[in-house]
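User: Need the bound-state model for S-adenosyl-L-homocysteine:
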Amino acid sequence: MTATDTLNLERPAPARPAVLPEMPTLIGLSREEMGKALVEVGVPERQVKMRVSQLWHWLYVRGVSDFDHMANISKDMREILRRHFTIARPEIVDEQISSDGTRKWLLRFPPRGAGRPVEIETVYIPEEGRGTLCISSQVGCTLTCSFCHTGTQKLVRNLTAEEILSQLLLARDRLGDFPDRDTPAGAIVPAEGRKVSNVVMMGMGEPLYNFENVKKALLIATDGDGLSLSKRRVTLSTSGIVPEIYRTGEEIGVMLAISLHAVRDDLRDMLVPINKKYPLKDLLDACRAYPSLSNARRITFEYVMLDGVNDTLEDAKELVRLLKGIPAKINLIPFNPWPGTNYQCSSWEQIEKFADFINQAGYASPIRTPRGRDILAACGQLKSESERMRKVDRMAFEAMMIANHGADD
Ligand code: SAH
Ligand code: SF4
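Assistant: Bound-state model below.
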């Protein structure tokens, strides 16, 4: 500022441009909520049921993201909808494809209220005969599991039901998983054979700390007249928020995965600190009570293999003892390193020994092959753009990967 640039305090400072009001969305609303929203903008009551089912079909069976493509809705009605609502997809900041076909999207969502825009990651993992989408439930995570990169991210807010669901819609768009626009209105569109056949709530965040929004989104994702994912193909992973595990069984009914990682309370207190609030006994009681468990509907227990920390045969033995009576499978996850961590992945030899022991005890115990490591898309590596790795960190990380697992992994 120069000497002549004095501030004129008599004139009020120009008003800051008002933040444009957000358009309410139709994505992520239950049928009742959508009906109410339509009535509020003047859709006649007697039409509401029909309009809701038309919209439901366009949004969730056909994957339309523009009102103009809703061929059997009149132009006037489309105009009303466009003036009052949005059905747009989130902004894609970045899309990366790993050498193994894994895809990772960095998505930006607008601020909610006074907040800032936020960025989250969604990962698609193609496999023989199926494809799994890994969805985030929060920006960052308020929990601080000591081996998890996401837990070091400060910025935290819950994602809305729309934001959770739109990760699935966007992945289906990008993978060409919705029917062609030319498919005639009302045509029956098969739910089988989709690229996204499975969904796991294993991205950023603790889904059970955002229960209501996760529930809304998953009930829509599994709605038989819409996105039609089978509840058996949707898995929610939690670090063990016991009261909400009971609610998940009663109110959502999807498959459950528990981030167990340790078999003694003293160690689990350190690795998964929420254990201090909900210790192993309470957690396993909640698992035993999970509805309709059977050999065909088992709980997955995730167990990250940390060198010299939780990977002895004693641990394996105790694991088998703890899970007795629970229809379970155990997912051994080789630790995915990230810059700044002090943990190392167990050796393959040790992981195999551990796996053999629990196999012999009668548990399926697949070792989860790390996917998408070259694009930091593997478990516990998700962390958004706002804290993107510096180049030096990336080099250190790559060196660590090679040291741990060999260059061709
Ligand atoms: N917050 C939820 C879901 C997201 S994490 C939960 O904790 O269950 C998905 C899985 O990846 C969890 O089992 C988590 O413990 C595991 N994980 C986190 N960081 C990891 C890392 N660095 N290497 C391997 N697995 C990790
Ligand atoms: Fe949060 Fe899950 Fe990471 Fe723990 S493992 S910090 S609960 S995202």
